[in-house]
From TrEMBL:
Similarity-based family: Belongs to the MotA family.
One Pfam family it belongs to: MotA_ExbB
Residues of the MotA/TolQ/ExbB proton channel domain: 99-212
Listed GO CC annotations: plasma membrane
PROSITE patterns: MOTA (PS01307)
Record lineage: Bacteria, Pseudomonadati, Pseudomonadota, Gammaproteobacteria, Chromatiales
UniProt keyword annotation of Cell membrane present: yes
The protein, known as: Flagellar motor protein PomA
Major localisation: membrane
Location in or out of the cell: Cell membrane
PANTHER family tied to this protein: CHEMOTAXIS PROTEIN MOTA, MOTILITY PROTEIN A
Keywords attached to this entry: Cell membrane, Cell projection, Cilium, Flagellar rotation, Flagellum, Membrane, Transmembrane, Transmembrane helix, Transport
Membrane topology: Multi-pass membrane protein
Length: 266
């Protein structure tokens, strides 16, 4: 579970709710007409710009914003070093028995065991990476569109409310409700865009970037293993995926191990 996403979104909602409750009655911020214009109108516009397949991807993608199933980079490097040592000791055929941490890696290991050529291996893995990237971004597209559309629909509601208000200037009892629609639709549009849609869209893009880096790492590792490179060489290649601070810490631990000391005590 991604606590940052949950805390951030809930925190924003709670702060807005507190601000509303400290003023007048919260019920005055509920306007069915405004909600229909913003929520209903935004949903229909987003739907008109997408296919039903993309809508289904978007529905599934929401889970990825709140829960990451991706392994961290350090544990991935450790796993690939284990695979490299296994291949060096027992041959590529032994890799099909390894319980991979992802379907992408499992497919790559099976291809190694099946004896795919280096060119074919890279071509298939690169294609898989690109298709995964496209699917992930298609799922996130709905929330990017909603970020743009909902404030615009809020402005539409504002204009409708203003026109209604101006058309009923001779009836003071109708001015208040019309002004409420005008102001609240703008509020609804901004809240939906900035508290819900945009955070989800940005978090999904972050997930996509993380998955892309992991798949690139797996590809580099599998190619190096297929070429029969020494596990230490494989490790040095994979360490380039770590930030400089983590890379230096890893190098210190390796140096400590070689010196016969416990990791992290050098």
């Amino acid at each position: 579970m991604d606590l940052a996403t949950i805390i951030g979104m809930l925190g924003a909602i709670i702060l807005v709710a507190i601000a509303i409750s400290l003023g007048a009655s919260p019920i005055i911020f509920v306007n069915p007409i405004g909600l229909i214009i913003v929520v209903g109108g935004s949903s229909m516009i987003v739907l008109s710009q997408m296919s039903f397949a993309e809508v289904r991807l978007a529905a599934k993608a929401v889970v990825r914003a709140f829960k990451s199933t991706l392994p961290d980079m350090m544990s991935t490097i450790d796993e690939m070093l284990e695979v490299s040592k296994m291949a060096r000791k027992s041959g590529l055929l032994a890799l099909e028995n390894h319980e991979a941490s992802s379907t992408f890696l499992a497919r790559g290991l099976q291809m190694l065991a099946d004896g795919y050529s280096p060119d074919m291996l890279k071509e298939v893995l690169d294609k898989e990476r690109l298709m995964t990237l496209d699917r992930n971004r298609a799922g996130a597209r709905a929330f990017s569109l909603l970020t743009d559309v909902s404030p615009a629909m809020g402005m539409v509601g504002t204009l409708i409310g203003l026109v209604d208000m101006l058309a009923n200037m001779d009836d003071p009892s109708k001015i208040g409700p019309a002004m409420a629609v005008a102001l609240l639709t703008t509020l609804y549009g901004v809240l939906i865009a900035q508290i819900i849609a945009n955070p989800i869209a940005e978090k999904l893009e972050l997930r996509t970037q993380q998955q892309e880096r992991l798949q690139a790492l797996w590809t580099d590792a599998l190619m190096a293993i297929q070429q029969g490179r020494n596990p230490r060489v494989v490790e040095q290649v994979l360490l380039t995926y770590l930030p400089q601070e983590q890379r230096e810490k890893r190098q210190e631990d390796l140096a400590a191990q070689e010196a016969g000391q416990a990791p992290g005590t050098a």
